[in-house]
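Box 3.1 A note on notation
Throughout this textbook, protein chains are presented in two layers. The first layer is the amino acid sequence; the second is a C-alpha cell string describing backbone geometry. Keep the layers aligned when reading.
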Amino acid sequence: MRFWAPALFGLLSALPVLIALHMARGIAPLFVIMAVFALAWHVWPQRHALTVGKPYLFLLAAFCLWAVLSALWAFDPVANGLGALRMGALMLGGLLLISSARRLDEAQARLFRRFFILAYAVILLLIAIDLLSGMQILRLSYALRGIYPDSDFNFSHDAKHRAVLLALLLPPAFLAVRHEAGLKLALGLAALAALVIATHRSETAILCLLAGPLAALLAFLRPKPVLWAGLIGLAVLFAAPAALMNHTPSAQAFGHAHPELSPSLRHRFAIWEYALGRIAERPILGHGFDAAREIGGREPKRHLDLGIDFYGHRYTPYFEPIPLHTHNGVIQLWLELGAVGAAIGAALLMLAWKGALSKTDSWQRAGSVALFATAMVPMLSSYGLFQNWWVGSVWIALAALEAEAGS
C-alpha cells in the first residue's frame, strides 16, 4: 500500500462526523467509496485473501442468505430481495475494510493514526464552534437544502447524528492519540469530545457516552466476568421478544404510570408494543426482509394513546404504528427475519463480543468493548438495523479501530 493510502484512510475514517453536519445519509456513499478502494487493494497489483476469521464469514454469509430467502415471503419479493442483496454487499464491503485495516504495518498505521487524529480533532472543534455560534453551521447546511428555519428552531434531530458519530469514533480516536501522544492528551481529547457530545442533549448520544467508557473500564479491569456478563446479557436480550410477544406491556399504561419520561421514549414503547404483536403472527420465519418499513408504509397514521404527559394532559401523538423502523434492532430482526434470523444475529454479536474480550492488549480490549457498547445503544433505541449510513458508519469505526493498532 502506497504511503498516501493510509493517510487518506485516516482522513476518510473521521469524515462520517463531518458529513453528519449536513446530512447523515451521505455517509453511505462515503462507505461505498472506501469499500471500493479496499476491494481494489485486495485484487491489485496482487491478490490478498480476506484477513477475517472463518466463523465471522460463515455467520455473516448465513445471515445474508437468510435475508435474501426471506424476500420470498416478504411484502414485495423483488424490491425486498434487492434490498437484502444490497445489505449483503454492505456486509462484504465492511469485511474488506476490516481486512485492509489489518494489513497495515506499523509505519502505515502511524500514518493512519496521525491523519485520523487530525481529522477527528478538526471536526470536533468545528462542531464546538457550531454549538457556540448557535448552530450557524447547521443553519447553513439547511440553507444549502433550501430550508430556512426560524430563529428559535430546534436542530436537535439532525444534530443528534453527529453527536452519536463522535461517540462511536471516540474509542479509535482515543487509542490513536494515546499511541501517538500519550495518555494525558488522549484523556484531554476524550474530555473535550464528551463535553461537545453532552452539549447536544441527545438522550441516545449521552447513553453512548456513558456506555462506552463504563464498558471499557470494566473490560480493562475484569475481562473474564465482563465476557460472561455480556454473553448472558445478549442471550437475554435476544430471547426477550419471544418471551414478551404474548405478554406485551401496554404503552398506554406505561405512560400513565410514568408521565415524567420523555415523549420519545414513550413513543418507542408504543412502537415496540405494536411490533411485538406482529412478531407473534410469524415468530419463526418473520415477515420478510424490510418488513418494518413495509408495515409502516401500509398502515395509516393514527393517534397513539400514550397516557398523560408531565403536565397531566393526555398525550396522543399522530404517527404510523411503525415509522420506517422499530427503533430497536433486536425487535426489527425478529419482525423481519423471525427466530432464525434472530438466532444468527445473536450468534454474530456473541462472537464479536468474545473476540473483543479475547484481545491480549488491555487498551485494545477496552477500546473494542467500548466501541461495541457504544454501537449497541443506537441499535437498541434509535436507528434502523439495516440503515445504510448507520451500518456503514459502524464498519468504518471498526476498521479504524483495527487500523489504529497496526500489524
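The longest strand covers residues 302-303. The chain has a mean pLDDT of 90.
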